[in-house]
Amino acid sequence: MTRPLAFQPWMTAVQARMEAALARHLPPADALPARLHDAMRYATLGGGKRVRPLLVFAAGELAGAADEALEVPAAAVEMIHAYSLIHDDLPCMDDDSLRRGKPTVHVEFDYATALLAGDALQAQAFLVLAGTPAAADAASQLRMVELLAQAAGSRGMCGGQQIDLDAVGRRLDEPELEMMHIHKTGALIRASVMLGALCGAPLAAAEGARLDHFAKCAGLLFQVVDDILDATADTATLGKTAGKDQKDDKPTYVSILGLGQARIKARALEEEALAALAPFGERGQRLAALARFIAGRSF
Ligand code: GRG
Question: Mutate which of 18, 19, 87, 298 to test ligand 1's pocket (most atoms within 8 Å of Cβ)?
Answer without folding.
Answer: 87
